[in-house]
Structure formats: structure tokens, C-alpha cells
Amino acid sequence: MKAMMSRLTAGLLLAAAWAIPAHAQQADDLVHDMQGLLQDMGKGKKPVALKMNPLDMGGNEKPGQHDCFWMGPVYAGAFNVAYPDGGAVYWPATFTIPGLAEGAYLEVAGSFPKTRYFSLHTYDKKAAPYDHIRDEEIVPDEGSQNPFITGRYSDNMKYTLRVVGGALPTDPAPNTIYMGAADNINRSPILVRHYIPETPDDESGGAGLPQVTLVTPDGTRISGEDACAALKSPPVGDPRRTLFVPVMEKADFDEKLKKPAVVKFYLDTKKTDWNVFWDPRINMLAFVSPPLQRVAKLAAQEGLIPKTSGFYANLDNQYVALSLNDKFGDVVVLEAKMPKTPKIGSDMGSGTYDMRYWSLCSNESLVTTRFSACVYDSQVALDAQRNYTIVVSKKANRPANAKAECGVTWLDWGDRGDGAGHPSLTTLLLRNMAPSADFGKAVQDIAGPGLEAQTMGDYLPKPVYSDKASFEGRGC
User: Fold this and answer.
1) Which of 142, 167, 204, 216 is the most buried (most CB within 10 A)?
2) 229, 232, 213: which is closest to 108 by C-alpha?
3) Contact 267, 325 (CB under 8 A)
4) CA distance 422 to 251
5) pLDDT tens-place string over residues 163-202
6) 223 pairs with which residues across the strands?
7) Considering the entire predicted model, what is its pTM?
8) Helix crossing, 27-39 with 2-17: angle to 10°?
9) What is each CA distance from 151 to 136, 139, 198, in whole angstroms?
């Protein structure tokens, strides 16, 4: 009964927001109508649109770290878009597989890298992740070993994967990644991701780039430059060598900020609660109607909005976000407990950990989708109980005792602010990667918006606004 009343409450609130005569509906019809409404959230209210802008990959590609198929790499030193992570490196590839519907596929053959983590993802034409496989799930080639399982590196660490068309089945084939239905593929990219390479100046983790072979329906194998030509993968230096990235147009952003309710929420509201990234539409509702966003969060908590993703997200990561505004204090203090994570990838085969990777980044807005700064788990100063203190501020406001020697980690707020004309703002993203099943305190365990603190407990920091002088008064 309580669950039904909660669903009715969510339905009635949303119905009121959209001026729908809910009184004439039965409970089951109301839930059904809620789901339909939420699929078209914002219709009739000038919804926020994201535009797929081309990112020119030419000119900044790192020598020796790309080829005619794999572009980039995208990492902290280049191509700062789509909310990347400071510890991540990835190589996108855009292509068209001739004969995909008839059974053509890509064969991706490589060596396991010396990295904390690696995976291969497929994405749909809207930059939402579709399928993926990560290191420990990969069956090595015959005679080879997987260091993420064995816990040791060797001279023979080979794998072979297939990228195929079609929907993800209930029981996927081993070492196979699916691209989805043909109508959802439009030169959709695949991405190879590495986190924390263990080889200096080599983002590939000593493995080099995977070799790609096009296998046609009749079994013909095409590799190298010939494969790139057949796949219409733009060669190095070609102006079509681009990745399309979802961003909010600056003109649209400025137009939304003419609404008093949006301005109050975006620029004048002190926010202290983290928000799980549940559905991109919920985030964007802040620019349409903050009250409607609150209703949508309640609906999501009641199971009426399924969890989705976007922005070339990593399916092994989940996120909580918090917007900061220095008008309430130019220093923000975060204190919490750090999950146990491995130091290197091969540790996964010989230890027990809470999760694979943890990070905290300061970010700009949807207009730029840039990160300003990041710190990841092994860069954070911890006490004997794995508790941490992180100070977020601009460089000019950094307290003298915000340093590792004092047990404090500093995160740069970012002088550009939101990157759209509001230097007082920043958005924090806290990432959890691939938590263990028995941890129970990860972002992945949050059942819906509003349950963040209840779920994560000591592992979710409560922000405290302060100032430089006050924090320095704590001493070292």
C-alpha cells in the first residue's frame, strides 16, 4: 500500500505539473501515463536540446598512439570533452561495416595492457553506451593468459574479440561485443579505454593498439590500410576524422538562463546534496523547470524512470554529481572514507577490493563538457582508517595547508567556472568503477535519486563551505 501511495503521489505531482486530469484515471492507467509522459519529458516547454558537435581529431593526435582506425588518444593532455576522467585514456574509432546485416564483423586482436583497467565499448548514435567487455571478462587466446585473472604479467598475453551487429542477447557469446539494431547505428563509435597506464609515456600500457580485421560474410579477411578503406574509417589527416560529441548550444544555454526560476536554481541556490546520474533528461530539466526536475527525481525513485546513460559513458562507472558556488564560500571541504582499490591491474587477480577505481573531478557545464581537474584514489592523502580530506578551491584561494604533508588533498575548482560565463560555479563528479558485489556502498548500489547519502554512508562526503583563512586555522 505504501509503495502504491508513493507511485500515486509521484503520478499526481507530475500530472499537476503538466495540467493532466489525473482524477479521471485508475492507478494502473496513471502509472502507464506517467511512463509515457516521462519518455517525452519537456514537450511543450521548450525542451533542452543537445547538439552532436564534431570534434576534429586531427592535429592533436599523439605520435605512435594512433593509426588509420584508432583515433586519439583522448586523455588529460588532449581532447578534453564529454566529461573525461583525468586517469582515463581512450581511443575512439568511427566506421561503417559493409555487409553487417549479412553477418560481416570486426575482429579485434591485441595484447592485454599493463593498466589498472581496460575495456571495449560500443555506442549508439546518441553517444549512449550499448555494450562492453572489460579485461577480467575476456578469455585469452589459446596458450596465453589474462593478467587481470592470474595476477601476473607475462610475455604472452593475447586476446581476440568480435564486434558484431544486432541486439545484445540474453546469453552473449564469449569475447563478443554487440553494436545494436541497425537503425541505431550511424557511424557509431567503439572505444577502447585504459585507466592508469603503468608504462611511462605509453598510454597503451605497453600493448600497442589492437589490430582490426574486417571479416566479410563469405569469410574473406581484410586487414591494415585495406580494412580502414573498406570500413570508410578516415585516414590520419583527413578532415572527416572526427568524433561527434553531445553539447548544449551556448545560445540555448543563455536563453534558458532568462527564466527566473532557472536563474535562482542555477546561480543563487546553495546545493549540498549529491545527485546520482540517473537519466540525462532529469539533469537537463534543471534548465526547463527545477520544480519539474524534483518531481522527475521522485518518479525515478519510485521506478518510473529507468536508469540510462550518455556522453560516451563507461558502463563500469557510475557517478554522483554536486554543483558548487563560491558565493557561499570560496573553499569547500569534503571528508569521507576511501574505498579499497588495487594499485595496478594485475592486483585484481590476487586480492579483494571494494572497487576497481575511484575519482573526483571538477567540471564545466553542458556547453563545454570539459573537466577542470581530477584526483583519483591513489593520489588522495589517507589516514590509517582510509579517511580523506579534500579541499576544492581556485588556485588563488588554495589554503597553505591544503597539501599532502598535512593530510589534505587539493582539487582545483577551475578558473573558468562553468565555461559558459559563470566563473563562480563548478560541478563535482565522483566516479565509482566496477564495485565488488559485497561492498554495497558504491554509487552503483543507489536505487534511485534521493537515496545517495543513505546508500553510500561514510563513503559519500558532505560538502562544507568555508574560506581560506578558516581552513588554514586548522593547522597542519
Assistant:
1) 204
2) 213
3) yes
4) 15
5) 999 999 999 999 999 999 877 676 778 999 999 999 988 9
6) 213
7) 0.88
8) 50
9) 11, 15, 15
What phi, psi does 83 have (nearest 5°)? Answer: 50, 60
Closest CA to 109 of 221, 187, 220: 221
> What is the arithmetic mean of pLDDT over 108-136?
94
Please say whether the beta carbons of 335 and 382 come within 8 A. no
Grid cell digits, residue 109: 586482436
Strands 211-215 and 105-111, bridge-based pairing: antiparallel
Sheet holding 371-376, edge to edge: 275-276, 317-325, 425-433, 357-363, 371-376
Average the pLDDT over 135-158 and give the result. Answer: 96
Residue with cell 580523506: 388
Q: What's the grid cell of residue 102? A: 549479412
Backbone angles phi, psi at 200, to 5 degrees: -55, 135
Task: Find the mean pLDDT for residues 411-434.
Answer: 96
Q: SS3 for the chain, per residue? A: CHHHHHHHHHHHHHHHHCCCCHHHCCHHHHHHHHHHHHHCCCCCCCCCCEEEEEEECCCCCCCCCCCCCCCCCEECCECCCCCCCCCEEEEEECCCCCCHHHCCEEEEEEECCCEEEEEEEEECCCCCEEEEEEHHHCCECCCCCCHHHHCCCCCCCEEEEEEECECCCCCCCCCEEECECHHHCCCCCEEEEEEEECCCCCCCCCCCCCEEEEECCCCCEEEHHHHHHHCCCCCCCCCCCEEEEEEECHHHHHHHCCCHHHHHHHHCCCCCCCEECCCHHHHHHHHCCHHHHHHHHHHHHCCCCCCCCCCCCCCCEEEEEEEEEHHHCCEEEEEEECCCCCCCHHHHHCCCCCCCEEEEEEECCCCCCCEEEEEEHHHCCCCCCCEEEEEEECHHHCCCCCCHHHCCEEEECCCCCCCCCCCCEEEEEEEEECCCCCCCCCHHHCCCCCCHHHHHHHHCCCCEEECHHHHHCCCC
Which residues share a beta bridge with 118?
A: 194
Q: Is the pLDDT of residue 220 over 70?
A: yes
